[in-house]
């Protein structure tokens, strides 16, 4: 005699206990500390901060530990936590002109004031697994430069502006909308698009950027400048009547210079793509710049080539990996009621089809 | 004497410095067919698209005699009004049937859509009307559940016509309706259009580079070159006794062919 | 969890959601955009419903949460526990004792009253989404009441299968104006949508809220000659004998033997206790 199964609650509790065990792993192995994560898995921390839209290295590290290294799960934890945090206000826009550059390169000029600073990059390494790292090893130190890096390194695009060769960005002076406070509505203005991309899934934005390079609305991007470093964050304090620096964050900024192909309304000029990401995250910043540029086709009077990256709705609605994974994984939830109605419908239609066939055969 | 259906004044469209079409003026009466001829690049398609509201013009007015409010400038209409117009009183037959049909919907569904869009809710009656219209455009009713993908070019074009005319529009825009079709298929299509226009007292504006089409279908015509209307008048008059040098060139090249 | 506000969300957010709900009630069936917050459960797992419930709950409320009609499914338990922790309100499995009911994919069999609120979890709020992928275009279609495409789909179903081939999330027309997706409830439940309770629909990931005030006219789309049928399996419940409730099919042995039981577990168990009382009389 069938008895309706109960005990769902106990099953969930046990599942959580088991998860906690798996998360810890073999207890004879020393436990990961947050410091180890922030120090030695810094780039993972950066990604989680960027897509979690929250700059806090320790919290990101905690999220990574809790999620057993599943970065999208970690991003989710950070986003959910962010929802609970009260808003004090908004800072002034950060000024990347005053960045203390850890790294600054340009592909468009061999040299420029400020120099090409390589910084700690994988770019020139050979991708050979380094088995020396298997053993906890020796620490190496880089030699320090003799002179400090200039505090103020002008942006390379300034030189192009001065010659009139690059499109001037409009300063509208208006407050940008906050994507996390208001629903995304299409058509979206550029600030919202950029916010969406900044917190969008790195893999997705990368794929979209790559598609432009392969010919789906190619925009001939050159890396005009890529810079990584600390910028100060300032905020107006009404009680003090002035603004003060409340801290420093590390950001990666990428400006691409894109060729303009004859469009209907503008004479030829270079145009820009822009990427800005919290933490040192080059792939993301560059991808963002390429996709930003591709999405500007309408404002620039270009043709709709039907490329996926030009479809604002397609790109912005599918860039958020938290929305994506939630919906994707929800199909694991019970759907047996909806499925039941499908079962009944298909059986009914098949019955009716059989009846029709039978009467047809009888007639023949 | 019926009232004017369409009154076009000073219609112009520019692409940067290039002229799409410039300073076009004409009027159209119920039951009248206007042909617009010219070579490619003459601006005739631009003109048609501006008239039909598919492309935004830069200057000019297009007054249409609406059922409820008389003569109204369609450029001043709100989007809901314009969309309503294009579902009821207006129709647009595209050169390429794929642009005017839903390719993954059956022939019956294609013809029935406009009916359903204005409130038809009886499946049987919708289907009856679809069958009726398919027969009128000489498509056998056994094809009613087939998708347009399975039709020949000529059939697709005839289906497009049925889809557009089923709700009884008063003004039909046609862009090279016989373009890309075999000569015999063209002839059949033209006969069909001619008889439907007469039967339903339709007004139509037909863009074509083919003088034979205007000779057969159009009451009046306009000749376009480089975006301007260089000559206009009654079809037979213009074709038999062209005044403008360009028109003379057009007419003579057809005779030689 | 004393660091969190009542029902998790801060008051500003609740205000924002309530404003959206009021707009939704004022225009039944119209999808109101709202700034969905990230919640501690993933998008697609009920965040829309949870936000609507969180904004609606007061400390005096009694909450029931069901998924597929049952109180004991994993998702229902998880959400119920969430509110127990963050709102400390009373919870129940009895439909008649609840003032707020959050549901996924079913409407309770028992008739709801004017004192109750039914909150639906909605995955895809846009009924036209699968016919027209563009949001800009579907917004226009709703604004201009251009629903021809919806009927074309129904027409195609009939021409191909002889019947309308939608069995759940069956589209409805609300107060003769907006076409609405009732969420993936089986079409059997559609007629229940004309009810005395308030119905609220929350889609978190898609960021939309819509609503039906009590006694709103809700008509399932059909053709005059192919009328809507709220059908279900032609069996009665093997546990309580009900002939009028929606049933789950359960496979009980290796040969594929099956029984049918009410999907609404509270409804079924109430009937079972009445039955056993009757036996003892």
Physical arrangement of strands within the biggest beta sheet of chain C: 1-9-8-5-4-2-3
Characterize the largest beta sheet of chain C: strand count, sense, and whether it forms a barrel: 7 strands, mixed
3D shape of chain B? globular
Instruction: Identify the strand order in the major beta sheet of chain B.
Output: 6-7-8-3-9-10
H-E string of chain B: EEEHEEHEHHHHEHEHEEHH
Number of strands of chain B: 10
How would you classify the helix and strand content of chain C by structural class?
A: alpha/beta
What is the CATH topology classification name of the largest domain in chain B?
Answer: Rossmann fold
Largest sheet of chain B: 6 strands, mixed
- Count of separate DSSP helical elements of chain C: 6
Characterization of the model:
The complex is a heterotrimer of chains A (364), B (257) and C (281). With 364 residues, chain A is of the alpha+beta class. Chain A folds into 3 domains: 2-82, no CATH class; 96-325, no CATH class; 334-363. Chain A has 12 helices and 4 strands; from the N terminus they run αααααβαααβββαααα. Chain A has a 4-stranded antiparallel β-sheet with strand order 1-2-3-4. In chain A, α3 (42-52) packs across α4, α3 (42-52) packs across α5 and α8 packs across α9 (282-295). Chain A starts with 7 loop residues before the first helix and ends with a helix. Chain B is of the alpha/beta class and 257 residues long. Chain B folds into 2 domains: 1-89 and 172-257, 3-Layer(aba) Sandwich (Rossmann fold), CATH 3.40.50.300; 98-168, no CATH class. In chain B, 40% of the residues lie in helices and 26% in strands. Chain B has helices at residues 44-51, 79-87, 97-100, 107-117, 123-136, 153-165, 183-200, 211-217, 235-240, 245-256; strands at 6-15, 18-28, 33-37, 59-66, 70-73, 90-93, 171-175, 203-208, 220-225, 228-234. In chain B, α4 packs across α5 and α4 (107-117) packs parallel to α6. In chain C, 28% of the residues lie in helices and 18% in strands. Chain C is built from 6 helices and 12 strands. Chain C has helices at 11-26, 47-56, 74-87, 135-143, 148-161, 265-280; strands spanning 32-33, 62-67, 90-91, 100-104, 117-121, 172-174, 178-180, 198-203, 208-212, 218-220, 247-251, 258-262. In chain C, the strands form 3 sheets. Chain C has a 7-stranded mixed β-sheet with strand order 1-9-8-5-4-2-3. In chain C, α1 (11-26) packs across α2. Chain C is globular, with a radius of gyration of 19 Å. The interface between A and C is large, with 49 and 66 residues.
